[in-house]
Fold this protein.
Amino acid sequence: MSSESEAFSSPLLCPPYNQPPYPVENAKLVIVRYRTDPAAIAKLVPKPLEPLGDGIVTAFVGDIWQIGGPGEYHEGGISVGVRYNGVTGGYMPFLLTSTDDALLVGREVFGMPKLLCDDGRVWVDGNARRGSLVRRGEEILSLGVNLERRIEGEKVLPVHRFFLKKIPSPDPEWPSLRQVVYQKLTDQKAKCAYAGRGFVRTGGNVAIDLSSVASAEVLEAMYVEASWDVPASKVLLETKIKAHEQV
């Protein structure tokens, strides 16, 4: 195999994903924004990112179909507002996904903090939409919204995102890499979007625990069906970390 024909990811003879972009052709998302303790959020944001300090968490659970990469999967997590070099965006300290394809492309390409969750779906219950994240049989996050009025879906979808990508070294004499990655989502199109009364319930297990950012007040709840493009991203900062500087 020549280097000119080498695949973007491994296994080289059957790579699970290609180079970006990764268009999201269809996503059905339950989104709840709520208020929690700003100090608890600050503990989840790694430097050099800076938390906005507003105490607002955006929780989401959805069913997503994405070509060029992971295909169909169930996914969700939480996002908090951060700032880096004057740019404001979202940072996801917790993100769970139902397939290895979605986990691999998210972690390996962008540095998303993805872990596997059990397979799930967004449920239709009359005018309600609800979804949950379950990992190894235990509920991590549960969301719901009652569809009561139409909203502008494009305004709900994220645009600017930051990731903290860690590339561990297998050799203690060779440093690991730590990257600040910036991503700008493009071509957001909402098929439909609604808002109404909502709820959020955070849970956890020994591996991942969202109880520290439990909801004090639900601010808004929404359901959106949409598409967007996930383009190639920018590495804004890269530092080398020696073995004795890591836990």
